[in-house]
Amino acid sequence: MSGRLNLVLPEVLSNPYPHFARLRRDSPVCQVEPGGLWAVTRYADVMHVLKNPQVFSSAGLQRSMLPSWLEHNPIAHSLLVMDAPQHGRARALVSRAFSTSMLTRLEPALRTTAEQLVSALVAQRTVDFLPALALPLPAAAVGLLLGLDPSLFPRFKRWSDDLGAVSATSESDHEGQKRIRHTIQEMEHYLREVVAERRRAPREDLVSALLQARVDGEALNDAELMAFLFLLLVAGFETTVNLLGNGAVLLADQPGLLERLRAEPALVPAFIEEVLRYESPAQSTFRLTLEEVELGGVRLPQHSVLILLLGSASRDEAYVPEPERFILERPQRGNLAFGHGAHFCLGAALTRMEARVALEALLPRIQRLSRGPEPLQWTPSIQLRGLSRLPVEVTPA
Ligand code: HEM
Fold first, then answer.
1. 365: CA distance to ligand 1 center in Å?
2. Residues 149-203 pLDDT 10s
3. CATH of the domain at 371
């Protein structure tokens, strides 16, 4: 175990990138802690894994979502942990419902929410950016998408934290297990209500579209539908919170960026792409080898669990020039923030729209965003890169 990089050590969490650069150079495929996972750090190797799902499986990871103490977890039956051919069928069904017109319908309501949140943030001057804007906007987006009552939106953080904690919860942590079971029941209760209502009276919304979607005459069954709604709540919430929070840190630390974006709002989409590359909100995803295989010159046994370090691949010097610099007008080459291939993020367009709407509301209203000298507190996660708090001072425009 000695000598292995531990991804959750505070000094690694505070700045993982020099550690990733060392791994890319010296041991691009190697075991890391916690758990002895096989880390894949180079862009080309990560792409190879994502392009070969017949060897590097997503379905094989289902077990980690259904530990022996948890008898029922809808997300363990979602498309995220399916392989072909089941994945193709489920993805085709939900993609029909998850359409561009759905995004167009959502945007005005999100813009209104963003403007209200920004007004309150500017009035307060000294705020924690996360509860002020980065958390409630994605909560509203997922909540409106799923048709949940706005009074439930503040619960999404706890829901997504609890579901995200399943694989890290030990056999002896009975309190943690109880909390997770309770959260699953609570989520199912509210989501079932929405599904039953939309069955009775369909609307122009995602759940109604999911109920109506057909591929070769087949619809989603109730369990598949619940699994997908759970997945949206988890995959779509904290990732976007991190994108907004990580973007705000860059605006605070590089005031020139904020000035530039205020002067040229057309650069907002380029800023979002570079934040996705530079501080990837989802730092990793996982795969299981179905057979013994060679990767990056290393022989991996059958049933090895791989952690694909997307945040490292997007900073691979063999793929991106000057990867350690934040370059606003970087010629786009496509980064790995949303994955690649069959499981490419279904919410990429939604999250980009949320970030654009947030910045378009924020930029005209603030002249400066400053943060104190205290170090940033990164959440101890091997999968997500985000902050636990972000106190800032706002100078209104
Ligand atoms: C900054 C925000 C986001 C990031 C960085 C992100 C990242 C990712 C990544 C890396 C994957 C691929 C996982 C894999 O290959 O194993 C993925 C899949 C997925 N994402 Fe996102 N995501 C974001 C936002 C969203 C949003 C807003 C939604 C929807 C509300 C969403 C829904 C999904 C779904 C359903 C999948 C599974 C697709 C499949 O398995 O076919 N994501 N996301």
1. 31
2. 999 999 999 999 999 999 889 999 999 999 999 999 999 999 999 999 999 999 9
3. 1.10.630.10
The response to whether residue 231 sits with its C-beta less than 6 Å from ligand 1 reads yes
135, 345, 359: residue to mutate for ligand 1 pocket, most atoms within 8 A of CB: 345
Q: Which helix (H) or strand (E) holds 306?
A: strand 305-309
CA 315 to ligand 1 center in whole angstroms? 20
Q: For atom 18 of ligand 1, which residue has the closest CA?
A: 345
pLDDT in tens, 54-83: 999 999 999 899 999 999 999 999 999 999
Asked if residue 106 is part of any domain, the answer here is yes
- Is the minimum distance from the CB of 240 to ligand 1 under 6 angstroms? yes
At what angle are helices 348-362 and 238-253 packed, to 10 degrees? 40
Domain span including residue 135: 10-396
CA of 164 to the centre of ligand 1 (A): 14
Q: How many alpha carbons lie under 13 Å from residue 395 in its C-beta half-sphere?
A: 10
Closest residue CA from atom 36 of ligand 1: 345
Residues with Cβ within 8 Å of residue 109, at least 6 apart in sequence: 140, 144
As for how many domains the chain has, the answer is 1
CA-58 nearest atom, ligand 1: 16
pLDDT, one tens digit per residue, over 104-157 is 999 999 999 999 999 999 999 999 999 999 999 999 999 999 999 999 999 999
| Ligand 1 pocket residue status of 307, Cβ below 6 Å | no
Q: Residue 254: inside a domain, yes or no?
A: yes
Q: Ligand 1 center to residue 14 CA distance, Å?
A: 24
Q: Of 238, 338, 350, which is best to mutate to test ligand 1, by the most ligand atoms within 8 angstroms of its C-beta? A: 338
Give yes or no for residue 110 CB within 6 A of ligand 1.
Answer: no
Residue 1 forms part of a structural domain: no
Strands 37-40, 305-309: pairing is parallel
| CA dist., res. 239 & res. 280, Å (int) | 9
Angle at 200 between CA 197 and CA 203, to 5 degrees: 70
List 307's β-bridge partners, or say none. 39, 286
Distance in angstroms (rounded) separating the CA atoms of residues 362 and 366: 6
Task: Name residue 363's amino acid.
Answer: L
CA distance 386 to 242: 5
Instruction: Flag whether 151 is in a domain.
Output: yes
